[in-house]
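lol ok so funny story. i was supposed to be doing the assay writeup but got distracted and ended up predicting the structure for this chain instead. priorities right. anyway since i did it might as well share w the group, maybe its usefull for someone
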Amino acid sequence: MFAPCYIGGWSAAEHWGLTEQLFRSICVMTATRPRERQLVLRKARFELRTVAPARFIGMKTVWRGRTRVQVSNPARTLIDMLADPALGGGIRNVTEILAKLVHDQPKEAAKLGDNAAKIGIGAVYKRLGFLLQRDHPDQVALIELCRTRLTAGYAKLDPALPADRLVTAWRVWVPASKRRRASA
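and the output, tada:
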């Protein structure tokens, strides 16, 4: 229907067991530019996001009955959410998904750096590095990778939230509620 496409964001996180949060719609990442971003088809709600075809990496094939569906793998799912926290229901959910991935699926967590490099969005490294240093300081290699890939400019931890403090080490603007353990 939306080909080429894959299931991503909150829907992929639910599929991989990275969140217990229930969402009312299915997140579809598509290379097309649909006129309507929110559709209801056969009582199923879809939310469509456009992705460049070159960024169709990190997919797994899942069978739903006789239908083959592409789903972003756990690492790619998190990278998409770090690029746009709204895909995970906001930065709070993205932080919980990151914790679950780091602790429950360390092999997938190790793929975060490769997936981030293939996507090439600087804000991903800023958000990932900040969250890892704050919440998972034992992830030394991944934190260092993020530090070496920092781009110029600044990003908000979550573009949907007001941010009042700049963490210069990560070039990320952080809301007051996200400051805990946010040193350097």
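The chain has one domain: 5-178. The chain has a mean pLDDT of 91.
back to the writeup now i swear
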